[in-house]
Design goal:
638 residues; alpha/beta; five-stranded parallel β-sheet; three-stranded antiparallel β-sheet; 27 helices; 8% strand; globular
Length: 638
């Protein structure tokens, strides 16, 4: 199966026609995720992006059926098939992952790196050349959709990284003439990639083509000043000076020695700072401290630690983790705990940006504004920071190229806000947000983790840790408070602070203070600090809803049953069941509802109280009409 070029497939040695562009897009997605189940919603996001037609789900089923006819023509319509299977609300392409050229390329690239690390230079060259030979043009060529566009960019970056490493090995093997041709083509494809230009200048110089090497530098300086308003990096400037003076140049950062260069020049020992690593960039250490009393989440911490550290080599695919969950569930505290635990794995520093996606203290930070903030913290003068977002993103990725930096992005509002802040290579991104960013998983390979409220034992541990001696030998009281908190760490912290701050108030009175349903959310707050008010946090989630979703949320506040079905939501809002189902899914993605089963939802208790408050904002006539519709539908069913 070919993804590194026009998307193609073969059956029993003969090429098959994969059908129209969107059908090829579905095939490419499933092939790139071989043996993994991809949900229908993820397929829709990958193929259509933000412009989703009402017929998208039917379109996915149609394209899958078409692929089954092509890939397994002997299968009858009633048979499930062995290659393209249905499972868990989605589809999976069952095949050997190495039958997909993109996967095979990544594995050969990793093998070449291992050979290089073990000192087997010729093996590294041979394996790298076999990996690069798999390419037949732009990846996912001729395939539409946001997933294909992102994969083209990701795989192209991985290919250029492989070219850079191969070229460095060629220079170390005293084969600069062969490296020049390949590097000229790579620089033409990616003219702003300074590492490629460093290698090209070095190769030309080692071939005895000093004038051509100097021309490449002059062109690089003109291009960087015109496109980004910056000068070449320190490494390029140093190399330029060495070539001007006819000095010695190290042929590769990958080895410490090399053969004599053309023209009688002997390469110098490898410099202490690898080429293209910007030595003058300050090491950031921006992580805020972890809140006192963090408990639990052991399994989730271990799982994400593996994901973010399994690519400890110099990789081109950046690990991305998005932790989502409802307001007050402790996403930021969890992410900071994880970030501090992993800091030693990222010796080049830790960046932190609060994107304020749901802040009540001002508008959210745009990606461009966040990039400006990060670039300043990396030592870039204001005058050198490009004005346009694309230029800022390019400079940001250039500064972090070849570095291992942990980037924590707190309170992300959308995938578009996050994507420009994803660096390349061996850094990682850890982010938090209240929305489920499924498109980021499909298009960018992000790992999504939903953080649920704490279990009873962990909640009890947190409450006891923070409340001092107030709950000693008060098991029943502690458990009642945990039940009232809904397991949200923010609520538990507010309760514990209230207990500790009021030592003279009887425990029973304080418990009743929290237990009284009317006005409970208003009492779960700390002074006038919005971030420590559960009501304020819920309000920001509500205010971010589209109009129709906000209306449904208000009307669902009238609903007293434990389970909310699609049909009941449709009756309350006076919409069709497909429209109601889509809105319910949106509310669940934003963690205002909990999905309990197929087409079934419920509120967390504290969110139910907030929805009931919001219901009062709906005009009385609208509330009455909604209840009448629901009662009439219930009576007709009975």
């Amino acid at each position: 199966m070919q993804l590194l070029g026009p998307v193609r497939a073969w059956r029993h040695g003969r090429e098959v026609v994969l059908g129209p562009p969107k059908q090829r897009a579905v095939f490419a997605l499933l092939a790139g995720r071989a043996n993994d189940v991809v949900s229908v919603d993820h397929i829709i996001d990958a193929v259509w992006g933000a412009d989703i037609p009402q017929t998208a789900a039917n379109g996915v089923h149609t394209y899958v059926a078409g692929l089954r006819r092509i890939l397994e023509p002997e299968r009858s319509r009633r048979e499930s098939g062995d290659l393209l299977i249905s499972a868990a609300g989605g589809y999976a392409l069952q095949t050997d992952p190495e039958a997909v050229d993109a996967t095979l390329f990544a594995r050969r690239h990793a093998r070449a790196r291992r050979a290089r690390a073990e000192g087997r230079l010729q093996d590294a060259l041979d394996i790298a050349e076999s990996a690069l030979s798999l390419w037949h043009g732009d990846a996912h060529s001729g395939v539409p959709g946001p997933f294909a566009a992102m994969e083209r960019t990701r795989l192209q970056d991985l290919r250029l990284t492989a070219v850079e490493e191969w070229a460095a090995d060629m220079l170390a093997a005293d084969r600069p003439v062969e490296a020049v041709t390949v590097l000229l083509g790579a620089v033409a494809e990616e003219p702003l990639r300074e590492k490629l230009r460093w290698l090209l200048m070095t190769a030309l110089y080692l071939c005895g083509r000093q004038a051509h090497a100097l021309e490449v530098y002059a062109e690089t300086r003109r291009l960087l000043r015109h496109e980004l308003g910056i000068d070449p990096s320190a490494e390029l400037r140093t190399l330029h000076q060495q070539i001007l003076t006819g000095g010695r140049v190290a042929p590769s950062r990958a080895t410490g020695t090399g053969s004599a260069a053309a023209g009688g020049r002997t390469p110098a020992p490898e410099p202490a700072t690898p080429p293209m690593v910007l030595a003058e960039t300050p090491r950031p250490a921006q992580l805020p401290p972890v809140a006192r009393g963090f408990v639990g989440r052991t399994r989730e911490l271990a799982h994400l630690a593996r994901l973010l550290t399994e690519n400890d080599g110099w990789g081109a695919s950046t690990p991305i983790v998005v932790v989502d969950g409802p307001a007050g569930v402790g996403k930021s505290a969890f992410a900071l705990e994880l970030a501090h635990r992993l800091s030693q794995h990222f010796p080049d520093g830790q960046l932190y940006v609060d994107l304020r996606g749901t802040s009540m203290e001002g508008r959210s930070l745009s990606a461009s504004e966040a990039l400006f903030q990060v670039l300043r913290s990396l030592g870039v003068d204001d005058a050198r920071i490009p004005a346009d977002p694309a230029g800022r993103a390019t400079l940001y990725r250039s500064l972090l190229h070849g570095k291992r930096v942990l980037v924590m992005l707190d309170d992300v509002l959308s995938a578009d806000q996050l994507r420009p802040l994803i660096p390349g290579g061996s850094s990682c991104v850890l982010s938090t947000g209240r929305q489920r960013l499924g498109g980021l998983a499909v298009r960018d390979g992000a790992h999504l983790l939903r953080l649920d409220p704490l279990g009873t034992q962990d909640a009890l541990a947190l409450l006891r840790c923070l409340s001092g001696d107030r709950l000693l030998r008060q098991e029943a009281v502690a458990r009642r408070l945990v039940g009232l908190s809904g397991g949200r760490p923010l609520t538990l912290r507010i309760m514990a602070e209230t207990l500790a701050a009021n030592p003279d108030v009887p425990l029973a009175a304080l418990v009743e203070h929290f237990a009284e349903e009317h006005g409970r959310l208003g009492r779960l707050a700390r002074g006038d600090e919005p971030s420590a008010s559960l009501h304020a946090l819920f309000e920001t989630s509500y205010q971010a809803l589209p109009a129709e979703a906000a209306r449904m949320f208000r009307l669902l506040g009238l609903f007293s049953d434990e389970s909310i079905t699609v049909s009941s939501a449709a009756e309350l809002t006076g919409t069709t069941e497909p429209e109601a189902a889509g809105t319910l899914r949106l509310l669940a993605r934003r963690h205002l509802l909990v999905e309990t089963g197929r087409d079934a939802y419920r509120f967390h208790e504290l969110m139910r109280l907030f929805a009931a408050e919001c219901a009062e904002r709906e005009p009385l006539t609208h509330r009455s009409a909604a209840v009448a519709r629901l009662l009439q539908a219930t009576a007709s069913v009975a």
